[in-house]
Design a protein that fits this description.
This is Reverse transcriptase domain-containing protein. By secondary structure, this protein is an alpha/beta fold. It contains 31 helices and 31 strands. Helix content is 43%, strand content 15%.
Length: 756
């Protein structure tokens, strides 16, 4: 028996449901079914056949049907465009003159927009003329239950059942609580009991297809094939075959939402019984686009229903039907109130057309209308999109976007769809998670979309900047860019002012303001001759500047960062003094604090100043104060041995290792740094590249196994003349002491153990 975790995604629910209730599963190897495939692998008795998206699924289906015995259950997990190849075969098998199939078949269909021009359910509706039952799933619980229900009904009625879901709405990274403990056999037994009871009460030998689907919904713990939520006196009722998650937003309006849980057979009686008598307008949310006909299947079904049934005192003339067709996922759009309420106003207009197509193209005006009243940051982002030719219409409708070097294919644009239109938040207390609610904050700092959209235009900051010429490189270097921190390089004051003028024009274009008080101008190896201006603000002159907490000075040496590290290490030592002084804290915890707090502060930027013990001596002195305090020793103690006893590496060794790692790793990066390392400048004095290469050649050797050994450690041990070190060498004692672990095992004796 497979243990199913309490929290699953919708795609995992499909895999677990298919594995529980089927003997064989044919699954298309696409990204949308990757989690389903992983879930199916846990079921050892189920035959799982993976199908390449480019292969013929019809041939795979026929081969597996022939290999399976009679009364076996087969599930097919495929995308909507893939199942169209099965339609001619299903017409022959399950049409009016069809002979049926020896195996029961359930289709689990993913409606997706990845790799396509739109999100369309037309391929699924094409099977509706065959009388095949069609159900939909919108949550992990429904995906798990409906997948099992489809297999049960298919086996009982010997007719295929389609269970489809909107893969653009389901999030593969969102885990929800789901009751997946009950085995599939329990649902099957409930369904058979309900069916037997219905046949006995009605005195019939068989039930209609509509009654059969009502019973499976009942066995599936679904109340009915149709569910209604909203005002009992609603004048506008929204209808869809899938859950749009908008019913919670309709509580304060005179509108209602009708969800059709079972589309085929069409539940006419149930719809008439639950729809309000006051309804004047029915809005059909049809997930279709680019139809050959004017209206879709759902519109034709409602038109036929209203022609034969009168609703209370209303006449047929008083009820108007509006079909809204969209190529973009409705649940993603309409679950967000800033987009829902403008949409309600749009369809509530008296002169609204009976067909709104395509709704995705109308989202541009609704998008701006929803954002402009309260979210000025989002309006700025919207303007940036327009300037980059990445307008909201293309982004929402799913059209591939191209601009300069930016190439956003349709599948990648789904990230922006979710980030812009489906922001949710929830509260977690312990293991309990609240229901998600809308996150109405636009695109402020901390929003998911903010860094993504920021990268769109910040990458063009250096566009047109001349930069500096470096011998050995084919292109000039304009500067350094890390998030919103930038370093601009120029060969003269005049060139720098030209570059600043270009930055000013760029900032004005994107309606940004640069804080000149945080900027600084530094002339390397020479005095600054003139003032520099950025957005009509004077740039302060400085001899040194801090970029990403790294100190750079006009001499271009490393003593500024070393001095800063010494000061920061001293502040950290004084801040942690009371903690390191406490006798009731185990020594091992104090060592952890030194290695995780003090050492990173003292060694920051060690990639540039490592491989020199004299340079880091002042920083090491500050770290040694903390080590003496922990070890409770004086200034005369041999610090090499004390550090070895406590398991703390020296600043010299850590910075040297960091510089050696940078020397080997930087040439592999996709930046201009590999060019600088491979083509070093020629100078009489040692540079970072030549100094690193000479130091590595001297102290780094490889043994017979190809492993790198740092001989500087052996050199330090050889030159150590302290008596305690010689004493440990003679007695062949190891490096780090074991008494610190004994303190953790025997906390009552930790003080005595430390004295020993």
């Amino acid at each position: 028996m497979v243990l199913i975790p309490p929290r699953i995604t919708g795609f995992q629910g499909i895999g677990f449901g298919a594995g529980q209730s089927n003997d064989a599963v044919i699954v298309e190897e696409k990204f949308v079914f990757m989690q389903s495939i992983a879930a199916l692998e846990d079921f050892k008795g189920v035959k799982v056949v993976r199908v390449d998206p480019k292969s013929d699924i019809l041939r795979v289906f026929e081969d597996n049907v022939n290999s399976l015995g009679s009364e076996k259950r087969l599930a097919i997990l495929a995308s909507s465009d893939k199942i169209t190849a099965l339609l001619p075969l299903f017409e022959n098998l399950f049409g009016p003159n069809g002979s049926g199939s020896k195996v029961s078949i359930s289709l689990i269909v993913a409606i997706e927009s990845f790799g396509l021009n739109s999100l369309d359910t037309s391929y699924v509706y094409a099977f509706s003329n065959l009388g095949i039952p069609i159900i939909s799933s919108t949550s992990p619980q429904e995906c798990f239950d409906n997948t099992r229900a489809a297999s049960i009904v298919a086996a009982s009625l010997n007719i295929p059942v389609i269970n489809y879901f909107d893969s653009d709405d389901l999030n593969p990274f969102t885990y929800r609580l789901a009751n997946a403990v009950e085995p599939s056999q329990c649902m099957n037994e409930r369904y058979e009991a309900y069916r037997e009871e219905a046949l006995k009460s009605k005195g019939l030998l068989s039930l209609t297809m509509e009654d059969e689907m009502e019973l499976i919904m009942k066995a599936n713990y679904r109340k009915d094939s149709v569910s209604y939520r909203g005002s009992p006196k609603a004048e506008i009722v929204f209808v869809s075959i899938f859950n749009n998650n908008i019913e919670w937003s309709l509580d304060k309006t005179f509108s209602g939402y009708l969800r059709i849980n079972v589309y085929r057979p069409f539940p006419t009686k149930k719809i008439i019984s639950v729809i309000p008598k006051t309804v004047k307008r029915i809005v059909l949310l049809d997930q279709v686009s680019d139809l050959v006909e004017v209206h879709g299947n759902l519109y034709n079904d409602f038109t036929e229903m209203l022609q034969g049934v009168a609703m209370g005192s209303n006449s047929l003339i008083d009820i108007s039907i509006i079909e809204v067709q969209s190529s973009y996922s409705y649940p993603v759009v309409l679950s967000h109130p800033p987009y829902l309420y403008p949409f309600l106003e749009e369809v509530s207009k008296p002169n609204c057309s009976s067909l709104v197509r395509d709704y995705g193209t109308k989202m541009v005006s609704i998008f701006c209308l929803a954002l402009s009243p309260s979210v000025p940051v989002s309006v700025t982002i919207c303007r940036i999109f327009n300037k980059l030719l990445i307008n909201c219409e293309k982004l929402i409708s799913g059209t591939p976007i191209y601009q300069s070097k930016i190439n956003i294919e349709h599948g990648n644009s789904r990230v922006f769809h979710t980030a812009l239109l489906s922001l949710k938040m929830a509260v977690k207390i312990g293991d309990d998670v609240s229901k998600p609610t809308d996150y109405l904050c636009g695109l402020r700092q901390g929003c998911l979309a903010s860094p993504i959209l920021f990268d769109f235009y910040i990458s063009d900051l250096f566009k047109g900047i001349q930069g500096v010429y470096v011998p050995g490189l084919t292109s000039r270097i304009p500067g350094l860019l890390f998030a919103d921190d930038a370093v601009l390089l120029a060969e003269s004051d005049a060139d720098m002012q030209i570059a600043l003028n270009q930055i000013t024009d760029w900032s004005n274009t994107w309606e940004m303001t640069v804080n000149a008080s945080k900027c600084g101008a530094m002339n390397v190896a020479g005095p600054q001759s003139s003032d520099l201006i950025l957005q009509d603000q004077n740039i302060l002159k400085t001899d040194q500047y801090k970029f990403l907490s790294y100190i750079m000075n006009y001499k271009w040496d490393v003593f500024g960062i070393i001095k800063n590290n010494k000061l920061m290490a001293r502040k950290a030592y004084y801040a942690a003094y009371s903690f390191l002084k406490r006798s009731d804290v185990p020594v091992s915890l104090k060592i952890k604090s030194i290695n995780s707090v003090l050492m990173p502060i003292g060694c920051y930027g060690g990639e540039t100043f490592g491989m020199s013990e004299a340079r880091v001596k002042s920083v090491q002195a500050k770290i040694d104060k903390a080590i003496r305090l922990v070890a409770n020793v004086g200034k005369s103690a041999a610090m090499e041995r004390v550090r070895a006893e406590l398991g703390i590496k020296s600043v010299f060794l850590k910075t040297s290792t960091a510089r050696e790692r940078a020397y080997r790793k930087l040439p592999t990066l996709i930046t201009w740094i590999p060019g600088l390392i491979k083509s070093p400048i020629k100078a009489r004095m040692a540079t970072w590249v030549t100094g690193s290469a000479r130091w590595i050649k001297r102290f780094f050797v490889q043994n017979s196994k190809g492993e790198t050994n740092i001989t500087i450690v052996d050199r330090k041990n050889k030159n150590n003349r302290s008596k305690i070190h010689q004493w440990t060498v003679v007695r062949k004692m190891g490096g780090k002491g074991s008494w610190m672990n004994l303190q953790l095992l025997y906390p009552d004796l930790k003080l005595n153990i430390q004295k020993i």
